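fyi for ur records
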Amino acid sequence: MEVDRRSLMKGVLAGGAFLALGVPSWAFADRSPQKSKQCVLLLGGTSADGLFKSGARAACADMAYEGLRTVQLKEGVLTGTDTITGLLNQSRGARWITVLDDAGAVIFLELARSVGVRMLSMGVHACSTDGPSYIRHDLTSTSQDHSVGGLLASHVLQQSEDFCITEHFLREPPAEERALTSWGAPGFSSHRSAGPDPIHVHCSGCSLPDGRRLLGLEATEGWIPIPPQVCTRESVTWRSENWVVSVGYAITASALGVDTVPESCASRAFAHQSRNGRRAQRAERFVSFVMDI
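which gave:
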């Protein structure tokens, strides 16, 4: 099962950004409140900034939150290091949501470390227009209180694009201490790996073997169907036709403390294939952080 754990996180650890960032486990918060009174959105000059901001605003509207402060670095992080350092020092107690390219993420993380950042979640979000047009999200969260994957899957499922999502929880109680719970959605089949650190895999439009292949899971045995009666749908009242907007919504809603469906697992993954999949209009890649200062 350790092989599967490594395979599931292969996209994160070998994806370029996380490897370059070299974020140690201690950088993630041991405990942090689900909700924060003050949130700051930092847009680092990526091509995704505008669409992400649109989704963030929609999440704030849905959750009746009017205090989001937006900082726009039009020329990128490198030319705005003094601005960022000043803002970090002035925003003790705030929760930050950031959108950065790979290089900007490395610089920002170094600046944030100097003020004692506590990471809640981080993700690499990418779409390539070369070959099969898959949108991929590789996520790491401290716990399911700060999870993004289930809400994100529920939103991008409304769009006619294929996607893969992986999410790893760093600090979750042992599976045997929790009742079996699972995310669910119409058209998805859900399976659970056996072992002390279970993985939940949710597939739509593809079989479990095909879903495992898309996700990089190597083991072919030991998968148990999850009973439908323990699967719960996310509450989704808003929709967008653009995947970057959906990422902005899901990450911001998570940062604001939205309640999501819990899963009794250490890692989870989602694979969706649409028969009439729509090709993404352009390649995109960015890194997101949610952190408490």
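The chain has one domain: 2-19+31-292. thats all i got for now
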